[in-house]
Amino acid sequence: MREPEGGSAAPPVRYHVGDLAVARIAARRARTVPGVVTLRADLSQTLLGLAGTWLSPDPVPAELRAEGVAVAVRGDRADVRVTVVTELGHNCRDLAATVQHEVGAAVRETTGLDADVRVTIADIELP
């Protein structure tokens, strides 16, 4: 690493990534995993979403929605909970492992945070 002129090293970078930013990253990546039909919001997210539609005239684009993902950022770690719906024919354990891996990688790549990802399969759609 190159030192700046004058011989002193640059101070360490301090930053904070918000819960919503991490949730959007996680939701976007989870939706791309084969076998994930949709993300499912829990009751608290549903109620917040209803309140948000009354307060905000501009809807959030689908690719930026974070329903189905709950995040708590603490220091250099993010606790991420993802709730998905799959379709019949996908192995739930394999799907959960893939979502966990993909979401964790996306959060690390984008934010630099280590992520503890928990996946819940809320429903299986039948043909």
Descriptive report:
- This protein is of the alpha+beta class and about 130 residues long.
- The protein has helices at about 20-30, 45-55, 90-110; strands at about 35-40, 70-75, 75-85, 115-125.
- It is built from 3 helices and 4 strands; from the N terminus they run αβαββαβ.
- β3, α3 (about 90-110) and β4 (about 115-125) form a beta-alpha-beta unit.
- The chain is elongated.
Give the arrangement of secondary structure elements.
Blueprint: H1 19-31, E1 36-39, H2 43-55, E2 69-74, E3 77-87, H3 92-111, E4 114-125
Parallel strand pairs: 3-4
Antiparallel strand pairs: 1-3, 2-3
Helix pairs in contact: 1-3
Rg value: 18 Å
Q: Name the shape in a single word.
A: elongated
Estimated structural class: alpha+beta
CATH superfamily: Cation efflux protein, cytoplasmic domain
Work out the helicity level.
Answer: 25-40%
| CATH topology value | Alpha-Beta Plaits
If you average the pLDDT, what whole number results?
A: 85
Largest sheet: 4 strands, mixed
Distinctive features:
127 residues; Alpha-Beta Plaits; four-stranded mixed beta sheet; alpha+beta; elongated
Could you give a quick summary of the protein structure above?
This is Putative alkaline shock family protein YloU. This protein has helices spanning about 20-30, 45-55, 90-110, and strands spanning about 35-40, 70-75, 75-85, 115-125. It has about 130 residues and is of the alpha+beta class.
